[in-house]
Amino acid sequence: xxxKWGSTMKNxxxxxxxxxxxxxxPSFLKKSxxxxxxxxxxxxxxxxxxxxxxxxxxKKRVLSYFRPRNDLPHKTALMMGKVSHLDFMLTSTEQExxxxxxxxxxxxxxxxxxxxxxxxxxxxxxxxLKEPYPRLHIVRKMKKDGSLYFxxxxxxxxxxxxHRLIDRIFKLRKCSNxxxxxxxxxxxxxxxxxxxxxxxxxxxxxxxxxxxxHIKLMLEGRDRELIRNLRDEMEHFASLLDFENAARIRDxxxxxxxxxxxxxxxxxxxxxxxxxxxxxDGLFHQLVVLxxxxxxxxxxxxxxxxxxxxxxxxxxxFLKQYYPEKAFIPSTILLSExxxxxxxxxxxxxxxxxxxxxxxxxQRGSKARLVDMARTNAExxxxxxxxxxxxxxxxxxxxxIGLKNTPVYIEGLDISNFQGALAVGAVVSFAGGEPNRKxxxxxxxxxxxxxxxxxxxxxxxxxxxxxxNLPDIFLVDGGRGHLAAVKHGLEAQVITASGGIxxxxxxxxxxxxxxxxxxxxTCDKIYVSGRKxxxxxxxxxxxxxxxxxxxxxxxxxxxGYHRRLRRDSLTTSELNGIPGIGEKRKxxxxxxxxxxxxxxxxxxxxxxxxxxxxxxxxxxVYRFFHENP
Length: 629
Description:
It is a single chain. This protein is of the alpha+beta class. It has five domains: 3-108, GIY-YIG endonuclease (3-Layer(aba) Sandwich); 124-265, no CATH class; 273-316 and 329-384, Nucleotidyltransferase, domain 5 (2-Layer Sandwich), CATH 3.30.420; 409-559, 2-Layer Sandwich (Nucleotidyltransferase, domain 5), CATH 3.30.420.340; 576-627, 5' to 3' exonuclease, C-terminal subdomain (DNA polymerase, domain 1, Orthogonal Bundle). 44% of the residues lie in helices and 19% in strands. Strand 10 (284-293) and strand 11 (296-306) form a beta hairpin. Helix 14 (453-466) packs parallel to helix 15 (480-497). The chain is elongated.
């Protein structure tokens, strides 16, 4: 594969120092990038590759990134904020660009590429047709060595059960190539009627080859053709009065028919298909592949991606990274979403397979029902995985903090004020590690005057306890003092509510504090009641990340509520002195003009258009702002 590297830096030395352009300036890129297929690499300030992409036209593709940030997807905008250098490599064809892109992604593992992380080597069945007496054995990796591979199977149990079934029906040789070459007498498997004994020349090569063809038909899902062939052989032996072989084939037909009955027929056609569907829940994308061979659903596999890309981007990355690794690519791949460059990818996969491969996104009919089946499988798989992850996270919270029971509900507490004025508190609720919007609450401080964070925390927890339905854990934004204030207020209120009896269960109280730079601390720390020193968890610890997320969410809500009250307060005071304008008309004005500035700049005619406003009211508002600037 021929190619030529290029860079936006390549002509810098030839330019005058006073006219050195920005190497990522669109006008410069428009001149330096070619209108040819190739691969481009974005690098950060340290020269690390953070994204690899391919393009049919490098100039058009790269320039599409240099739009206003608001017009770019969020992930792309973040990436472009880190890009400081661009390299590219030209290729002869778009298919070569696919291959180069894939190899560079595997080499650099860029941060902003969607990576198929599948460490599992799923088992397959292998038949080496170059051998005169091939054996069927289980392997973990497909190779393009001329052998026939069947699979991959989703589990070792499924591949072993299939292997045992074929061994029982067709009795291929079991011994390895090394033992097969030196063996002079039949092995024990032959004595037990579990092998045809090719090691002792008990069966001719041609006869053995027929059996291999039968196995191939069975593994390819072509059961009807296989049964038809076996019936022809059975009738042939019966016509020769060879009833022993006729009975043997009759038993094979029965075993195959029993196996076929258990398989789910999903397509009336005989073509081989893969059905690929992806569903999304936040950052998580669950992708499921259903393998249909000869019209029968044989296996399925699932892949989980954690990325803020779109389902179409996930599918595109999967097609590029999954199928080049496979020895077998089906003639039809059905997709739940149309992907960018779908026709080009289909052409590339056709070259890899040596025959035409269709990528299709069906909208109706039997193929659309297959895609719906794959999508339903993906939804159920993702739901199960997320529930399992939530449960595991809560179990980790229990063990890390030292709780008796696994928590479910955690509520975060925070306060916000401006020099003691308009003090407010906020509560956010998380269930199983995810936001529970029904449990969000706001409080305006009533009893505390001035700057008194501890007093405000005590007031808020007192009022929160009175509302009932307490969580398993209260998380406070602050240090030991904030924790103590909430703990004391919580216990006092709970004991009062229970008639002076200390109840068996009171929510745990913990707090999270920022690192102390004077002590050269680098991570947030968690304080737990009854523990002298804080929990110093590593920066990427799941429990710390969850508590930071809750803390940030309640802080955002408290700040937002405080700002809204300040804005409403300022707005109200601005309009208080206008004759004829009460609370109802204030709201109408603000809904119509959005803010005070628009009201102040409005003419009498514009003011008169406000619903319910007469000329007199309009003139009153106009005079107020223009006579009292």
